[in-house]
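Q: Give me the 3D complex with NAP.
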Amino acid sequence: MEEADIGLIGLGVMGENLALNIADNGYKVAVYNRTADKVDAFLANAGDLKSNVMGSGELATFISMLKRPRSVIIMVKAGDPVDQVIAELKPLLEEGDVIIDAGNANYHDTVRRFSELDGTGIGFLGIGVSGGEEGARHGPSIMVGGSEAQWKNAEAVLTAISAKFNGEACCAYLGTGGAGHFVKTIHNGIEYADMQMIAEIYGIMRDGLGMSPEDCAKVFKEWDKGPLDSYLIEITGHVLDAVDDESGKPLVEVILDAAGQKGTGRWSAIEALNLGVSATTIEGAVAARSISAMKGERVRGEEIYGAGVKGNATISLEALEKALLAGKIAAYAQGFAVMAKASEENGWNLPLATIAKIWRAGCIIRSRFLDQISQAFDSGGAANLLTQPAFIDMMKDSNGALRAVVATCAINELPAPCLSSALAYFDAYRQARGTTNLTQGQRDFFGAHGFKRLDKDGDFHHTWPSLIG
Ligand code: NAP
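A: Here is the predicted complex, encoded as structure tokens.
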């Protein structure tokens, strides 16, 4: 009976495809799902992979199918369902077995789950899996956190099913505790910023330059051959030239302009704020999704203030391409800076070059750009991309275009929260003499917070005039 190399709980979109991927790679996988019918359907539809899949709608039977020490992947809805599944699994597992949470967990939950399993002898790994449905089926990017010894139990299977970039597996052990889920969270934060900046550029093309979706699609397809070459730019071209079967119109014109969010972008922004690291592009992207969801208020806002100027922008497509590259550099610089700081605070020793490497294929933000980032971190230097030689050259070449695009947006009444925050970050990052000297003076005035001086060491306080009376 004990013949499966690994077990998987949760036959949703991701779980089902991950199980097929495992079977496809020659490993035997046992599956379980809360709604038992899905197990029957999965086994019935396994086709050529039939000999590598087994399963049961009964949890104890499912566990009895696994080779010891057992490795069980949980791929269910994030949050309480994960705790419920762990509680059901605990009495059925024994010392040496490992539970692997592969969902999009908040890393604080992962840390808590580690401590709750502490002393039971049952191991735990928190792994981030990126790539959506297709990635899960044909090779996702996998970010592993937990004990390195327990990772060894599942390493062969997870490495085999991951995406490959030039033959290198996009799967790596990144650090203890919640490191894997933290890195996945920041991956999603960067993804939010990347997508939002692309949407802002599309907005300039549509409303500023009066371009049709078809024409925009052509431009994005062209850009996919240059420095912006990435999965997100590629799918943007396809989304923009898709036609709606029902209306015959470009599909993008009938899609409601209101986005949902499941939490990872917001968590990224919250973690950055808690760590005291500037991640304004991620914050801008989260805020953009929030305002997108206020469709009714935006309609009312346009009635009150007018729609803004349409079709009057004068900006070249070349400037838009370069601006997107500059914005992207700022967003990735911020995301990696957040990870570097979290690594320091949590003692993770996160391998930044490896993270960039395992994001080169399989995941949603995969791109040529990530290969350049991995090379930059591989050659050492500071954690902020803006001080890495290859990116210094790119930023010097492209920040002028970002400036021109943000100015165009301001003049033409086009919102560009992410691109403009990328520019503001860049300008603040390279301003040796900032303006918080004034802020420090104000803080000392009303709260006696003190300040430091440029010309001597120590803490100082000024005797300010009283404004009372
Ligand atoms: P999904 O299609 O909505 O499937 C949810 C699964 O969770 C189903 O198998 C469901 O079982 C199970 N479930 C829900 N509540 C449960 C509970 N209380 N106890 C036991 N099982 C429960 O979800 P998904 O899209 O595959 O996502 C799974 C995880 O992967 C999530 O953490 C998600 O954030 C993450 N993720 C998703 C994507 C993506 O592109 N979809 C990408 C990366 C990561 P029933 O069939 O019984 O309802």
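A quick observation: The mean pLDDT is 96.
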